[in-house]
Write the structure tokens for this entry.
Amino acid sequence: MLGAAIYTSSQTGAHDANQIPTEPASPENQTEPESENNIEPPELPPNNSSFLHLPELEPPPSASLGIDALVVPDDYPTIQQAVDSASDGDTVFVKNGQYNETVTIDKSLLLLGEDKQSTIIDANSVGPDLLILHDNVNVTGFTLTNTMIPSEGNPWFPDFVPPIHLPDIRIVNASHCYIYRNKLIGSTIGVSVENSSQIVVTENEISHNTKGVELSFSTNSYITNNVVYGGTTGIVIASSTANTMVNNTITDALSGVWLSSASGNNLRDNKLLNNFCSFAVTGSNVESFVNDVAPSNTIDGKPIYYWVSESNKIVPSDAACIILVNCTDVTVQDYDLPLSSHGIILANTNNSLIKSNKLASINHSKSADFGEQALSILLFKSFNNVVEHNRANINLDYSCNNSVTQNTGLIRLYESDFNKIFKNSITSISFVSGDRSGIGLDNCSGNQIRENTISGNSPGVLLTQASHNNSVIGNNICDNPQGGIHLMGDPHDWPPSGDKESAPRFNLILNNTITGNGNEGLLDSAYCTRIVGNNLEKNRGWGILLANSVNCSIVGNVIEGFFFGGDGFVNTTNCIIVGNNITVNSLYSQYGVWFMSAYPGTFYHNNFFVLINVDGGVSHVWDNGNEGNYWYYWRLSWGTDSNGDGIADTPYLIDEGNQDNYALMEPMNIDTYQSYPD
């Protein structure tokens, strides 16, 4: 015998962890439990995979009921008191009942439940059910749950107390622990392994947790032969290396398996069934994607192809999920991919073809849980690829010189440069959530967005942060509920100061049709934007809204509804507006022309077919020294030209501080302004 056995009585019903029994049962009257969870522990699972080498753990001893046995609750009223009294190598055997306590284990021992169906620990989120802080701790034969402490008060008021929900088992800074044949139900995490190594989690039934099993900052651990169902995420390996995951079944979860900044891990023979997003891999560097994932891992019976350092190959036709790491010249073509967070991933993969693939349709409400990159084709630090004719959400992160053409879905670029986004149908199709921009650029430069049809998004095109020198040319941008094009940032932080993020700058918006969008057709809060030759009609707000724009030029556009101003804190500055047709919104007459900026702008050769409103006490420049603007309503009533030179005899007085000294008698032909030199 390795140590004294600490054994609980076999009373039926729930045990109060604080109740002290009046008459402890004598050891000689105890009998061995007659259930599948006998006191004799199970053997380690068979080694079914040639690569898998489980650690050589000594099987836990049988519970000895000798005269020196320690019995709980006969000898100890709570599991914690029994653990505190135990020595390294002892066994704590817990009989059927419910124990409402949190147990901290800081010594090597076996914690053995009589029957996992009816030996229950519930800490009620005072702490984890079990907090393991020592090496060589083995736990088997329990149902572990951790009831949530509900919230208090109204979340909109300062006295609101959020709910508290904690894990079933936390293993911290430990090694050689063995968690097997337990039920783990209804907590934040069934088993949380943190900063630990050589941990085995095997043959457990894990259900309806936020996460079933999570390894974080842990190595050389083993997750095998578990059944995980329901909940948010089945198994997470985060910031962890050299772990092994074999023969687990994960069903009916929002997310099946998630590898997050995890490298060098081995996955074999795992079955992912009927999950919303079965398999996801994310990371901040290419090394995070380097794992050994065999095709024996399946999603709804179809294999995961996870290739590392392959070249000149075609992915087999039965793929469920395709991940290419450090590959070149690979073809991925004509697949209908089931639910997986990233149907296709290219990480440091170049000169490859991704063509005519379709991702499965999903429910909008669930897709929002997985963010902008859900259910997508992802290029991560990948170059010179062709992505065409796919039906998918497409994400480019740190990827350059790719061609993205004739796809259907949404497109996101993050710190990606010199890509060609041509002739796509950009729309919020059924497998991506609403309330997303159609094409989004975040801190990107040199990209060409041309001849796309962009509709049903919010907004159609979004340029944020320091996105610069991009061109948006010849697109049809219509019926986007939150606007046509948005350029968003703080242009007054230019040049950038310190670590502040600057606004979009030096972008070209040319010859687009921007109609029928909710809110404004074009919202500019940027630096040196060139807005040329666009048709901005029949939007459900301003055609163009300049809010905090700096050094922008607006030339040769047809604009229904024009707002020149700011948000009351900083304002549009040093902008020039030339050669535009400007009129009231033909659908919503309240959107006419307003000048609200505290700083002057320059206006000439524009045709104002609407009365304007000037506020802010600022004197703008209304001519170029020779010619001003055409004012339709003033011309009808007061404008005269006695010498026939096309310039009104008298200035047009707009208000006390503004006048057009060279008001035009006839409208300008703006066609000459509607192009932009290459």
